[in-house]
Amino acid sequence: MTKNYKYGRDKERKVARALRTRGASVRVSPGSKSVTDLKAIFRSGKKWYVQVKSSRSATPPSLTSKELARLKQSATKSRAIPVVARVTPKGIEYKSARSGRTLRPSKTKK
User: Fold this and answer.
1) What's the pLDDT at 59?
2) pTM for this one?
């Protein structure tokens, strides 16, 4: 396991924990080949397909146009919202992969 892979997986788990504290049921993909890193279902019934991007610096890399298209296509098939979670030292920011607007997870706690 490379150092960068482990760092990325740690950040995926961090996002999963953060979503779980908001009452979501979260499944982390078993490997790095999936188009979605996380699948979250909120109590409201809303589904998020999440691609996590992280960086040790202030700006995580953006998704490539191919990654973005695959994320949107996968989410559409499952009636989910495609989300990019950007993890920086300052925290986690959730953005819609379709519109680019900032999203907030449901405030429903467990």
Assistant:
1) 81
2) 0.89
